[in-house]
Predict the 3D structure of the following.
Amino acid sequence: MRQYDQIQKQLQNRKEALAHRMRQAGELNVRAPSASASFSTGELSQYDNHPADTATDLYEREKDLALYEQMEREYEEVSYALEKIEQGTYGMCEVTGKPIPLERLEANPTARTIVEYGNGRLPKHRPVEEEVLTGFEQFHYDDDDAETEFDAEDAYQAVARFNENDMTFEDASLDDEDELIGYVEELEAFVSTGIEGYRGAEHVDFQRNVHYDHYLNDSL
């Protein structure tokens, strides 16, 4: 096994590095999936948090857990390879019993088989998002006289109709015709200055937008 001395050293260094990173993750309670959102984010309460902020925290939490699980699997693979070196069985294909080429072991020290039986093939499953990328044709029963149920297309149409209200659109600061949202003073919705700030009345710009019309109608 002298030919694998360099690989063994590489595996030992990798195992120590993984153990160090896993200890650090443990100190940060990364591996505590049962911990509440408030515990993992340091917030006393999630009540006043914007849903998008909560979603970002959840994404980061899931990513940390996925990375930790990946480190665990790699640690097990490295440990298994080191045990095989100690037992004198390292470098033998577990499927065919043939020697694994040294070049493959140098590129992938934890390889258990020759490349023909490796697990590096692309998965056959497709992303679940592709199920809805083709539209709603596969989610309705319009052509089936025997089906009268409220299908997925009907659900989408029922929700989408709420976006057809006048003066209400995505990212609009005006939610309805009676209330302005997002401004401390009503004038801020249609009055603006340059980057230098207020430099006199002659440098104030008026935007003839829906907020301006709203302000005029209230003043009459």
Remarks:
- Strands lie at 174-176, 179-180, 191-192, 205-206.
- Residues 7 and 109 are 7 Å apart (CA to CA).
